[in-house]
Design goal:
mainly alpha; Methane Monooxygenase Hydroxylase, Chain G, domain 1; 2 domains; 23 helices; 0% strand
Length: 540
């Protein structure tokens, strides 16, 4: 019982240290991870590199594949891109195994000491991120040491050692054990840590360890498979591709490459079984990628067959496109996705505004109805994005990402208010249609001129948000000043027409309401631009 408690304690420290180190690494590499979406092209080799890099940062292939499932579910990534990243993730996860296979326990107290001092006495975010990496490193190796000490007494139990040797004679049993352990702890790095702990105490020979190692690689697929439950069809296919890839890689190694690999790793290091296991793990994943890379189309086709299209399944029925809860685990990428969704919401609000004006000017009930319909979608998007931002705000964010998330709360509300003004204009258009009213030609020309200026102001605000362009954001402020002047001019001209009986009181009221709504749209565009300016100023 003492052995189990000590082992669980060591495993807990190992996992906590790994997560803490991953958080520090992720926050330090936040800007790089934000650019990752731009690198996700159909280039398979780039996908492999991206997958390896992200996994090296977040220290978990399971987390990377879960993120890939989220990307596919959000429509950011297709299956061809996904399989490259999945393959790369398998390579990236070998870094943790290589790290823990070295005897670095002596460095753990040093890393902890330096990390804690930096964390307590530094106020700089970058220094705190480095401190988290060092503390995580120290705790990880402390946990590893705990696991080694916990399993040491097992050497006295002949039944246990005989059982481990059996796995070498019956690879399928070892495969199932590795699969089961990884499926339970939800981390191949953690199960690999336990395997290396056993090997470092001389409790398990390489021949017995390898089937368990292969089983761990299959077990890591369980996390992504669970994650894909409730996701769309392509997301489920992405999770299935991960499973197919690891099963095929395991089959190739067990049948053809097991003996050559054993011979090779023992020739590199003949005595240290822990290093042999880590090297085999690295070779397994690299060689699997090299062998299976030419067969990616076959893997995709097989996944499509295993997860077929069902009748009545509508992938386009969802209001949201880029948001997925799985991506919250990688906040820097989740931030990039929520910006995309907010910009999409902004475009929807623009569409509603366009339909409303077209309906108003053209007395088109069809366009007015379209405006109402799109505005409802804008409201739905607001709810989804705000809920997502709330979840994201509770995640570990660097200072820059925190400012972006805080600013987006305001921006989303501003866009929703633009949608409301579009709805107001559509209501005015409905009044025009129902009462068959006619505005003066001069009034219509002024209205069109004002609307075009307002629309340009709003478009520039969205572009400034998209590109993070402070000059364009400042331009929005100047454009809004012009809108204010034009709106006052419209009011003065209208009063002149009213005094000279050039328009009716009924149309006059509608006209004033419309230009007021348009002016309010430009005010909200300014708010969007000011969020861009404030972020730039705070980080300059």
């Amino acid at each position: 019982m003492d052995i189990v408690i000590s082992l669980m304690g060591g495993l807990g420290l190992f996992l906590f240290g790994m997560n803490l180190m991953a958080e520090g690494l992720e926050k330090s590499a936040g800007s790089k991870l934000k650019k990752i979406i731009e690198l996700l092209t159909s280039n398979l080799f780039m996908g492999v590199l991206v997958g390896a890099f992200v996994t090296a940062v977040i220290q978990s292939s399971s987390a990377t594949t879960v993120m890939v499932v989220g990307f596919v579910n959000a429509g950011i990534m297709n299956l061809t891109q996904a399989i490259g990243v999945i393959m790369g993730a398998n390579i990236g996860t070998t870094i943790t195994a290589q790290l823990v296979s070295f005897d670095l326990n002596g460095l753990a107290p040093v890393a902890l000491g330096i990390g804690i001092v930096l964390y307590l006495f530094s106020s700089k975010p970058k220094t705190k991120n480095i401190a988290e990496i060092l503390i995580g490193f120290g705790i990880l190796f402390t946990g590893m040491d705990f696991m080694k000490e916990a399993v040491k007494p097992l050497a006295e139990y002949k039944g246990f050692t005989d059982l481990l040797i059996t796995f070498g004679n019956y690879p399928l049993l070892g495969l199932l054990l590795g699969f089961g352990i990884t499926a339970i702890v939800q981390s191949s790095s953690a199960s690999m840590g336990m395997l290396i702990a056993l090997a470092s105490q001389g409790l398990i020979p390489l021949a017995a360890a390898l089937p368990i190692l292969y089983g761990q690689n299959i077990g890591t697929c369980v996390t992504s498979l669970i994650s894909s439950v409730g996701a769309n069809r392509n997301a489920r296919r992405a999770a299935m591709m991960h499973l197919i890839f690891n099963v095929l890689g395991t089959a190739v190694f067990l049948i053809f490459l097991n003996k050559p690999v054993v011979k090779f790793v023992t020739s590199i290091d003949a005595t240290d079984v822990a290093r042999q296991i880590a090297n085999t793990h690295t070779l397994f994943n690299i060689i699997s990628v090299i062998i299976l890379l030419p067969f990616t189309k076959f893997i995709i086709k097989l996944a499509v067959k295993l997860v077929p299209e069902k009748d009545g399944e509508d992938e386009e029925s969802k209001a949201i496109k880029y948001l997925d809860d799985r991506m919250v685990e990688t906040p820097s990428i989740a931030v990039a996705s929520v910006i995309k969704e907010t910009l999409r919401m902004g475009e929807k609000a623009k569409s509603s505004l366009n339909y409303a004006m077209e309906g108003f000017l053209g007395k088109s009930q069809e366009n007015i109805d379209k405006s109402f319909k799109v505005e409802k979608l804008v409201n739905d998007l607001q709810k989804h994005i705000l809920n997502y931002l709330l979840k994201l705000s509770k995640a570990p964010l660097d200072e820059e990402s925190r400012d972006v998330v805080d600013g987006l709360f305001n921006t989303v509300n501003d866009i929703e208010r633009i949608g409301d003004h579009a709805e107001n204009i559509a209501e005015l258009g409905k009044d025009i249609v129902d009462a068959d009213l006619n505005l003066s030609e001069q009034g219509i020309l002024e209205m069109k001129e004002l609307y075009n200026k307002v629309l340009s102001t709003y478009e520039c605000a969205l572009e400034a948000m998209k590109t993070n362009d402070i000059e364009l954001a400042c331009k929005v402020l100047k454009m809004e000043e012009q809108v204010d002047i034009m709106e006052k001019s419209c009011r003065a001209n209208h009063m002149h027409r009213l005094n000279n009986n050039l328009c009716s009181i009924d149309t006059g009221v509608i006209y004033l309401d419309l230009i007021s709504n348009l002016e309010r749209v430009s005010d909200h565009a300014v708010n969007i631009a000011q969020q861009v300016i404030s972020r730039q100023v705070s980080h300059s």
